[in-house]
Amino acid sequence: MGSIFDWLKEINTLKSHPDKFTTQDWDIWNSYMVHRFLSQNVNFIEIVNEVQLLPPTSKKQIYTIYREFIPKNNKWSKYIKSSNKEPNKDLILSLKEYFKVSTREIKDYLKILDKKEIQNILSNQGLEEKEIKILLK
Fold first, then answer.
1. Is 135 helix (H, G, I), strand (E, B) or coil?
2. Cβ distance 135 to 88 under 8 Å?
3. Model confidence over 80-95: pLDDT tens digits?
4. pLDDT at residue 77, as a whole number
5. Which residues of the chain fall short of a pLDDT of 50?
6. For the chain, which end, N or C, has fewer CB atoms within 10 Å of the first or last residue's CB respectively?
7. Which sequence spans correspond to the domains of the chain?
8. How far, in Å, CA of 10 to CA of 60, rounded?
C-alpha cells in the first residue's frame, strides 16, 4: 500500500481480505479520509454515515464493512471541492482594522455589505481608487 488511493481501490475493486495487509499497510490507512472520499459518491452516503460512527482506530472493521457493502465497481468518484472564493486577504485586514472585529466576523460582514459600502469604507481609510479596485477583485 502506498497511499489512501490504494485503500480506495481495495474497497472498490480488489476487495482483498483484511488479514492480507501488513502493519505498515494499516499505518497508511486514514479512516477520516476513506470516509470523506467514499461519501463523494451519492450511492454510498448512507453507509458512510453509519460506518463513520465507529472509532477511527477500528481500521480492520471499517475496511471489512466497506469491502462487504460497497459493490465492486471501477468508477472514480470525483472529489467535490468548495466553490466558495476566499476574499482578498488585504481587504479582510483593512476591514478588520476599520471594524475592530475578528477575521471570521469580517467574512460574515462581507456577505451583507454591498460593494459601494466597502468602497466607501476603504476610501475613508485613505485608499485610492486603484488600490480599492485591486482589493475588490
1. helix
2. yes
3. 677 778 889 999 999 9
4. 64
5. none
6. C
7. 4-69, 89-135
8. 13
